[in-house]
Write a structure and sequence with these properties.
The chain is of the alpha+beta class. The protein has helices spanning about 15-35, 50, 55-60, 80-85, 85-95, 105-115, 160-175, 185-195, 200-210, 210-225, 230-235, 245-255, 260-280, 345-355, 375-390, 405-415, 425-430, 450-455; strands at about 40, 45-50, 65, 95-100, 120-130, 145-150, 180-185, 285-290, 305-310, 320-325, 340-345, 370, 395-400, 420, 435, 445. Helix 1 packs across helix 14. It is elongated. InterPro entries: aa-tRNA-synth_II, aa-tRNA-synth_II/BPL/LPL, Anticodon-bd, Anticodon-bd_dom_sf, His-tRNA-ligase, HisRS-like_core, HisRS/HisZ, HisRS_anticodon.
């Protein structure tokens, strides 16, 4: 007996209603991307390993899905590494490609390869799946979609202002009020590390600090100690664990704290410009918040960093994030090409919108009417009407077989189809249609124009 098929952990099948809801979210994001002037591109689902590896930090590299070389992948394997079972060193000889981890690094590669065809500043959006070898849990999957918008070729901080507005516009259109757009700046984190004497541990410091909301203050301190950050430095950073006040007050506190760090003060100036202008322009449904513990674990951010939290009533991780990267394309040979971008987490946004019951009923609207099949002659007559109704943008269909009428009505009921169109010899002779409301049971005889308007 054949075993029951399954799918890998961290992946999902989507039903018709789920796909309809996902497409609803994608369409809102896409339409706003285009409204803000972003153009679509697509890149391959897998890249050469050396394009991806080393771009996301040690933790990110571990989560990249490697693809075994075609054919006898062990033929070129290093015998010493194979015998010693050194998987880290062995991987490079048996895997030359990997599934993309995000859309930003492939975008940087795209910009470098197509730099002579691109008009800068270049505003691109991309809506495609990515893969991470993460531990699956609620809201965290191994295969998921990202919806990215990036501007490359401009250092203007007005881009950051507009990206905050883009977040606000999308979540407003989705009916999601109370979304929190957290902002920080990597220069501020560098400045803090400098002030507390831990500049050589910047990455370890920021990765640990970024986990404050997940593992708490004690967990962050424990990780910092394990990474070699001194107790004296941790004492100095203590005020960051309870950093309160308005955005303006927080910026003033940072200005005092970082007065001896040129890099830190540059970050303060950038934050002040972005936050002041966003608040002056106003947000419709989102809330802007300065979070000094926000670090985001990606090594390539150099300026403003963003993370979006759902409304407080929903227990869910971040539903978006991004930031400024001054020289991401430099890793591929194109220097001094600054960029900034944000991403929407489609799968988590879906869960949040579903939990808050914000999907309009029309999103999952199915076929409007099922034409009952009484035989070939009646089916042909029905298809003539169906052809015209579809041309008018109305979703209708014919039951494919001349099955028992009860079975056809049951099919309509299970599909949630609200109307049935009945055509027998009498209807054909009179050139009319019997339209039955399957919820109320009411049935009326109509000509084609009335049928069309009723549907």
């Amino acid at each position: 007996m054949a075993s029951k098929p399954s799918i890998p952990k961290g992946t999902r099948d989507f039903s018709p209603s789920e796909v309809a809801k996902r497409q609803y979210i994608i369409q809102i994001i896409k339409s706003n991307f285009e409204k803000f002037g972003f153009q679509p591109i697509e890149t391959p689902s897998f890249e050469n390993s050396d394009t991806l590896m080393g771009k996301y930090g040690e933790e990110g590299d571990r989560l990249i899905f490697k693809i075994l070389n075609s054919g006898d992948y062990l033929a070129k394997a290093d015998a010493t590494h194979l015998e010693s079972k050194d998987s880290t060193k062995l991987t490079s000889s048996i895997s030359e490609k990997a599934l993309r981890y995000d859309l930003t690094v492939p975008f940087a590669r795209y910009v470098v390869q197509h730099q002579n065809e691109i008009e800068f500043p270049f505003k691109r959006y991309q809506i495609q799946p990515v893969w991470r070898a993460d531990r699956p849990q609620k809201g965290r999957f191994r295969e998921f979609f990202q919806c990215d918008a990036d501007v490359v070729g401009s250092k203007s901080l007005w881009q950051e202002v507009e990206l905050v507005q883009l977040y606000d516009t999308v979540f407003t259109d989705l009916g999601l009020s109370g979304v929190i757009i957290k902002i920080n700046n990597r220069k501020i984190l560098s400045g803090i590390a400098e002030v507390i004497g831990a500049s050589d541990k910047l990455i370890d410091f920021t990765v640990a600090l970024d986990k404050l909301d997940k593992i708490g203050e004690d967990g962050v301190k424990k990780e910092m100690i394990e990474k070699g950050i001194s107790l004296e430095a941790i004492v100095k950073v203590q005020p960051l664990f309870n950093f309160t006040g308005t955005i303006s007050e927080k910026i003033d506190k940072l200005s005092d704290l970082l007065s001896t760090s040129a890099d830190g003060m540059k970050g303060v100036e950038e934050l002040r410009f972005i936050c002041d202008n966003v608040l002056k322009l106003g947000l419709e449904s989102a809330v802007l918040d300065l979070d000094v513990t926000l670090a985001r674990g990606l090594n390539y951010y150099t300026g403003a960093i963003f993370e979006v939290a759902p409304p407080k009533s929903v227990a869910m991780g971040s539903i978006g994030g991004g930031g400024r990267y001054d020289d991401l394309t430099g890793i591929f040979g194109l220097k001094n090409m600054s960029g900034v971008g944000i991403s929407f987490g489609l799968d988590r946004i879906y869960l949040v919108v579903e939990e808050l019951n914000l999907f309009p009923e029309t999103v999952t609207a199915t076929t409007k009417a099922l034409f009952i099949n009484y035989g070939d002659k009646e089916a042909f007559y029905a298809l003539q009407a169906i052809q015209k109704l579809r041309a008018a943008g109305i979703k209708v269909e014919l039951y494919p077989e001349n099955a028992k009428v009860v079975k056809q009505f049951q099919h309509a009921d299970k599909r949630g189809i609200p109307f049935a169109v009945i055509i027998g010899e009498q209807e054909m002779e009179s050139n009319v249609y019997s339209l039955k409301n399957l919820k109320t049971g009411e049935q009326i005889s109509v000509d084609f124009e009335k049928l069309k308007s009723s549907l």
